[in-house]
Amino acid sequence: MTRSFDIAVIGATGSVGESLVQLLEERILPVGSLHLLAGSESVGQSLAFRGKTLRVRPLESFDFGSVQLAFFAAGAAVTREYAERVSAAGCALIDLAAALPSSLAPRVVPEVNAQVLAGLAAPYRLTSPSAPAVAVALVLAALRPQLQVKHLTLTACMAVSSRGREGVSELARQTAELLNARPLEPRLFDRQIAFNLLAQVDTPDATGHGALERRLAGELKELLEAPSLAVSATCVQAPVFFGDSLSLSLLANAAVDLPAVCAALQAAPGIEYVEPGDYPTAVGDALGQDEVYVGRVRGGLDEPAELNLWIASDNARKGAALNAVQLAELLIKHYL
Amino acid sequence: MTRSFDIAVIGATGSVGESLVQLLEERILPVGSLHLLAGSESVGQSLAFRGKTLRVRPLESFDFGSVQLAFFAAGAAVTREYAERVSAAGCALIDLAAALPSSLAPRVVPEVNAQVLAGLAAPYRLTSPSAPAVAVALVLAALRPQLQVKHLTLTACMAVSSRGREGVSELARQTAELLNARPLEPRLFDRQIAFNLLAQVDTPDATGHGALERRLAGELKELLEAPSLAVSATCVQAPVFFGDSLSLSLLANAAVDLPAVCAALQAAPGIEYVEPGDYPTAVGDALGQDEVYVGRVRGGLDEPAELNLWIASDNARKGAALNAVQLAELLIKHYL
């Protein structure tokens, strides 16, 4: 007999929430009842789940004692407001908004640091890291036996869907305006995103670093248990609807054994290795895929301890919803 | 009395050739007669210059003894075929295709290494470096008094116009096909470039590095007279019509003095420094501008010797035609 679990999805009508519901349907996770919750503006909407139509109900009045697991995909403020109530009800919490400090809700990618769960006690609280951190950590974890990374330089070219549906419709609208020679009106983004690259995805702090750039650096160190890793992160908004493209350059503490690196990437679960000559793209390869695609793997031109590679990944899939669902599977299998 | 110079432009009908002719018209360079030359397929076309219509004439039968200076913007094979004839006729040559080795035609950016010309003798031969190399070298040259760079990591997101007019029309066509839900037919690029990023701009060699990536690394070392500089370069094809966006991360051999770096960039000729908070983009700032735009200047999150910045520059302007014209001005002023 298989136990089934009652689950709540908060922020079910957002793009990540919708991907979550779709993955819960596709994957073997034994879902008993599924509750879709959102703020008052989305209550009354509905989503399909296993042949039924589920209505979105108000988060405010929900009894978290009636479910064993809750996914929070509604933004940091919502997670912060409800986290205590969820835990007090004995319900496990998986946050996709990085609302809580690591001490309260550690960042976990199952393939990278699943062992962290063994040190926790119920009620469980986990954070699913940002999409680029998940992809980069997966790759670096696969290479742990091959190289110890000292310094990591990442330029993350992020899809507009990282800003939700509004990002997608803004790129479509701006593109159509430009192609039809109509005046351009930026709304969600602060300037033209169509046929352009924006050098930041949020407002930098006084030191010039953006919130996501800081978050990424912190997440990578935590996931890889590498507090002394130095991270340089630049987050760029690209005129791409779906899928992140990451240009990654590493400095290891010794010369890189390239054939061993390629073999390790080829063998790693969750990674699709693309041979030199060919290369993966976000749109052509990663979209809709659970795997993170890695290509353009090459050493340094001048520096033997350098490793360069290119990662394409579906930011809504492994980057967000899939990793959260995998965390739920891990909790359910071993801890709940 | 001002001497005037008779000039030939080879590859005048390409997009760089056309920018060259436009700049020759705009700038004070004392042009006597201007000869537009091209292969047989373009002969008979014409361009406007100072109120006159100039016909494109055949390169094959041109007498280089009739001009003092020739710009080669027609591809490496053409430069290689004609270089000897040009020099034998006593004509100075400025190559935009990196056809000749540095020993025969050194790479020069006037603001960076103009002193190289003093070591040459007539007939002069110079190479105008690749667009990203010009932009990065300008920035690093401005910072020479502030920091000695050991390792440089560059992700260069390049406009489709770096592939000439065909690149521009391919992006426009693919975008329209996708927006109108018609089947996509990649032609010039090997796959979908619209709403996508391609991880390479040419075919990599057996070590995985692309020709432009190798060229960039070599050009930066030569321009900055820094043979021990380690360069990691990733050239990416972006769905942007005009203007390159460069994400640059440097490791210096000592802690970076950020206020001094910002002050140096603010004071440097040819550079437009953008304050933190704001940031430059290729389309919004750099297009049509002679200056290279630099923003998002920030130190390392973890590494005091790290410096990160973002460069937006018009790849057809300072990156190609303008630098070549400035080389001509330098030759004319001091050497011809």
UniProtKB/TrEMBL annotation, chains A, B:
Residues 6-120 form the Semialdehyde dehydrogenase NAD-binding domain. SUPFAM superfamilies: Glyceraldehyde-3-phosphate dehydrogenase-like, C-terminal domain, NAD(P)-binding Rossmann-fold domains. It comes from the Bacteria. Keywords: Oxidoreductase. Its EC number is 1.2.1.11. InterPro entries: NAD(P)-bd_dom_sf (IPR036291), Semialdehyde_DH_NAD-bd (IPR000534), Semialdhyde_DH_dimer_dom (IPR012280). It holds the Pfam family Semialdhyde_dh. It is an enzyme of class 1 (oxidoreductase). The keyword Oxidoreductase applies. One of its GO terms (molecular function) is aspartate-semialdehyde dehydrogenase activity. The keyword Ubl conjugation does not apply. Belongs to the aspartate-semialdehyde dehydrogenase family. This is Aspartate-semialdehyde dehydrogenase.
